[in-house]
């Protein structure tokens, strides 16, 4: 290992250790919602980065730290009710910052990663588009889907959390690069789409091509949807399974659920998605190739004809 690589590695380890301490600090906050025995393990990320990516990595680290350090700016007695006008203003602001879709749900412990905690039980879920050309031209070892999207999206998430605070609400942001919760499941609960067999959120707007972040908030009257209209995607996935067949690392495993081998588990040690920019299961997903509405109407028609 070269001298520079050695310094980089030591610095990164020290920074990661600081971040881990900050994560743990939320567990001690009064009223925090903590993981439980059914909570998932956090996805192991060991991204290989070039020296050129170092400034972006540092910025991501700084903004992850800010998600915790900014908690001291929460109002002492945060408001718990937001008007419809405020929710509309928030959504307009988020969309003007490049956020693609916004959903709302309540947090349950089984979406919180093991040993993690969140400050509020109400959550705003945000998505940001991944460039289609970059996804389709990506292959393991290349880094077209580089870290800048995480950095930019993390900053926007923090800005929106600050906006909530400025308006008297409590906020706890969760960075897209190192979240506190399993994002695709959280976004599914928020009605934004459905978690496909590739473990990615599939949405009508972007198929599997988005990153996700979240803001936990004191607002108790968020417009939470009671139904998820995307549930049919689970049945479609059961007839497709393309991502399982295409994954070069066999990192997607089918697992038994109460009604058969319909669920999947991503083996993080094998997956090259986070570590080496693999997008094979994303770019080969039919929802990345065709419009959601076209797939849906064909699938429904096929089943009506059977
Ligand atoms: S490739 Fe097929 S099985 Fe995999 S997530 Fe996409 S639709 Fe579902
Ligand atoms: S990102 Fe690549 S390695 Fe990981 S599950 Fe998808 S296809 Fe497999």
- The share of residues in extended strands comes to 15-25%
Helix content: 40-55%
- How would a crystallographer describe the biggest sheet? 4 strands, antiparallel
Which structural class matches the secondary elements? alpha+beta
Structure, explained:
The chain has one domain (3-217). The protein has twelve helices and ten strands. It has helices at residues 3-27, 54-69, 84-96, 132-136, 148-166, 183-189, 232-240, 242-246, 273-276, 280-283, 286-289, 292-305, and strands at 33-34, 101-106, 117-118, 122-129, 171-174, 194-195, 201-202, 210-217, 252-257, 260-266. The strands form four sheets. A four-stranded antiparallel sheet has the order 2-4-8-5, with helices on both faces. Strands 1-3 form a two-stranded antiparallel sheet. Helix 1 packs parallel to helix 2 (54-69) and helix 2 (54-69) runs parallel beside helix 5. It is globular and about 60 Å long. The mean pLDDT is 89. One iron/sulfur cluster is lined by residues 247, 249, 251-252, 266, 271-273, 278, 280-281. The site of one iron/sulfur cluster has 12 residues, from helix 7, helix 8 and helix 11.
Can you describe this structure in just a few lines?
The chain has 306 residues and is an alpha+beta fold. It has helices at 3-27, 54-69, 84-96, 132-136, 148-166, 183-189, 232-240, 242-246, 273-276, 280-283, 286-289, 292-305; strands spanning 33-34, 101-106, 117-118, 122-129, 171-174, 194-195, 201-202, 210-217, 252-257, 260-266.
SSE map:
Elements (H helix, E strand, L loop, with lengths): L2 H25 L5 E2 L19 H16 L14 H13 L4 E6 L10 E2 L3 E8 L2 H5 L11 H19 L4 E4 L8 H7 L4 E2 L5 E2 L7 E8 L14 H9 L1 H5 L5 E6 L2 E7 L6 H4 L3 H4 L2 H4 L2 H14 L1
Antiparallel strand pairs: 1-3, 2-4, 4-8, 5-8, 6-7, 9-10
Helix pairs in contact: 1-2, 2-5
Bound molecules: iron/sulfur cluster (2 copies).
